[in-house]
Amino acid sequence: MVRSIILYGLFFLVIIRGVLAQEQITEYYADQSVKAKGEKSAAAKTGKWTYFYPDGTINSIENYSNGKLQGTVEYFFPNGARQGVEHWTDGLLTDSAIYFYKNGAIEKKGVYEQGRYQGEWKFFHENGKIYRSVNYIDGQPEGATWVYSEEGLRIQEGRYHQGSEDGEWKFYDESGTLSYSGAYLNGKRTGTWYKYDKKGNRKVWKYPTE
Fold it and tell me: Which domains does the chain have, with CATH numbers?
């Protein structure tokens, strides 16, 4: 019986110490308006932290473990609209993420791996139409890509290799008509480039020296 009481007392002390070790923190702007609220344990941020704009509206809601971002993080515009949602593991961006314009339309979405873009990322115009689609490997664009105007017309197409433009690229005007074409090598124009008129006739284009 006595041993049970002692063990219970020790367990209770461990809990009390853990609670006392978690310190409630409030950070302030220079004008003394609240900047952030959360907890620290052993001087490191832990659990949920809420950040505010100077006017008191929420800027972001972040989650920490041992001072590193862990779990879901949400960002907000000053008007209260959601700006983005990310997922973190041990202080690195990971898994899916999505970002928004102030009007609520999606700006871009994709996946992070070890803090870098990975796989297909899609970018959008504010009117909701696709802007461009790019595939990434370890944070660098790789493979075919297309760029579109706000009206939905294709204005660029080409390929990336190890993060740089590579191979044939085509550029179109605001009406979707082919204007220029040529090749890149390691991100620089190379070979013969062509300029096209409205009828599709082409002539050699002397591109600017880069």
Answer: 23-93 (2.20.110.10), 120-210 (2.20.110)
